[in-house]
């Protein structure tokens, strides 16, 4: 169970007018229990989706309140939480660190497979599961964007997390690769929390959170949540067209 209790996230931000730094709220106080197998998070750019996603594995810590995963506190037990919660970024290049796929997945396996030869073998098995067996020794930069996203997913899933948090994992992909990643994620046994701009993908979730201006403004079944988000965005678009502040 993922639990957010009265979580408030603030940050220091430079004053655009050149004055002293000021405190800005990234996420207003929020309490949530997430135990559905598939949770989607949707919302406008800059609304706070990544902040919410990053709270779940301690990449962002609450300024007040607390986040726990299976009872482990992200602030106190960060390393243990990160073993439970895998995180995949939008841009796979942000998390692929090794020159070849087999080395990158092997890096994830160093804790569970201390023997180097066994580790490389296990890494190849993981890559095969993700359709990347033939690419195992190819330089990472020669892979397509879609293949790199699969590799990033493979490297995270190799650690066998209980929960997978995905922050817009398909935003940079074309439709074909998006379908490949969506299918793969759909077949996972892990609990998945996915930030997405793909409203069709959100439509398949068990629960959808709509984030706006640092608040969860709707929380419920996909159809209603997507409708709420569309209405919100249509209203904002007409304010932008009218030239009024958004
Ligand atoms: N560390 C930070 N310091 C100051 N402002 C931040 C920080 N992280 C994010 N923000 C701001 O907080 C808002 C929400 O960011 P984010 O959670 O990344 O939104 P989203 O993922 O929905 O685009 C944005 O306006 C962003 O610029
Ligand atoms: Mg984001």
Automatic annotation (TrEMBL):
Transmembrane segments: none annotated. One of its GO terms (cellular component) is ATP-binding cassette (ABC) transporter complex. Pfam families: ABC_tran. Keywords: ATP-binding, Nucleotide-binding, Transport. Residues 2-238 form the ABC transporter domain. It comes from the Bacteria. InterPro entries: AAA+_ATPase, ABC_transporter-like_ATP-bd, ABC_transporter-like_CS, ABC_transpr_CbiO/EcfA_su, ECF_ABC_transporter_ATP-bd, P-loop_NTPase. CDD domains: ABC_cobalt_CbiO_domain1. GO terms for molecular function: ATP binding; ATP hydrolysis activity; ATPase-coupled transmembrane transporter activity. Belongs to the ABC transporter superfamily. PANTHER family: ENERGY-COUPLING FACTOR TRANSPORTER ATP-BINDING PROTEIN ECFA1 (PTHR43553:SF24), HEAVY METAL TRANSPORTER (PTHR43553). This is Cobalt ABC transporter ATP-binding protein. The lineage of its organism: Bacteria, Bacillati, Actinomycetota, Actinomycetes, Micrococcales.
